[in-house]
Amino acid sequence: MSQSPLTPAPQPRRRRRTLSLVSKREAARISRLLRAEVVGGVIVMIAALIGFIAANSPLADGYFALRDTKIGPEALGLHLSLGHWSSDGLLAIFFFMVGLELKREFVSGALSKFSTAIVPVAAAFGGVAIPALLFVAFTAGTPAVHGWAIPTATDIAFAVAVLGLIAPRIPPALRMFLLTLAVVDDLIAITIIAVFYTENIQLLPLALALIPLALYAFIARRFAAPLARSTFGPWLILLPLGIVVWSLFLASGIHATIAGVVLAFLIPVNGRQGTQLAETFEHRFRPLSTGIAVPIFAFFAAGVAVGGASRFPLDPIALGIMVGLVIGKPIGITLVTWLLTKFTRAELDSAIAWRELIGVGALAGVGFTVSLLVTELSFSDQADADTARLAVMAGSVIAVAVSAAFLVRRPKARPKASPAPPAPAA
After folding, report:
1. What does pTM read for this prediction?
2. Which residues, by range, are in coiled-coil regions (predicted)?
3. Could you tell me whether strands 70-71 and 80-81 are parallel, antiparallel, or unpaired per DSSP bridges?
């Protein structure tokens, strides 16, 4: 039957454009953050390289003695080795910055709108699930399966730094995708650590932590503007409260880095006063995180003797981690993104090619900071831990090479010059 002239024509199905920047202000903030992550990533690379070289040189004995040196008051249960301080203490600063960025993304960033959040959030879960399943496939039936979360993390500083080196002209929307993906990945990793790597919780210290937490939240919200303008206020008021919360979390059995995330989530990030305070923390604490905390952790965590107790590279632990990082990450991220664009109204930004998306998925396999932290939480056996550390570093390097194969563009061939016309006859 022919359609009546009065019958409205059917409207085409409207699709939602994803992986695009939210606003100019958001784009400017992301650009500043990316520049900071590039610098931080380079510093961490250098620190990790120095630690690895020191552990495999004549300085090895001095290096390991330094890492095992214990400092801190015994009466408070804080007589820890320098390596322990770097993972439980200094990394709390790193997780504070992660928590602050997470809250800003959920309140006013890419994760605040369903249309911009659905693809990177779902892709992040795919990039966690597939590597975890691959690791379990290699280690099933052995105690090593406890390390299933090691290949699930993405090191945002490393990944962004490498992206800036191998693909400086990549579309901004794809940079945003990588950053949002890594932020969600961090949230998943934080949840995994809190739920699956916490044992023997002591309720009394955890209950006592609620007192300084409540005071911290009240001061941060009630006096946001004065604290943002003050030079010493955040250091003299909020920082001591944060240290008390951290120490009580450590005593409770919950990994102390979770305290950094909880404290960050109590900082207001919306409204004029909240934004000013969040930016103050961003300005003052990010240099501590990228320039001191994470590099020191990397220096100690990367110190693995190649000829030591490790069973790298053919042990199931090593194979599970490397396959998870190098193959599992890009498959999980790309497959979930393709499924969403195929069966929902989501679609990629027109500036993004699937080849580039696969490259970014491969780059997400650069797992370092959080992967090494989960390694420490997973294995008490030195051989297992050293095997896992070497696998994390090797897998991350291979992931960079795979990513470069997809992202590095060959220069276009220049057209051959036309032959000069013959000179006119005399």
Report:
1. 0.80
2. none
3. antiparallel
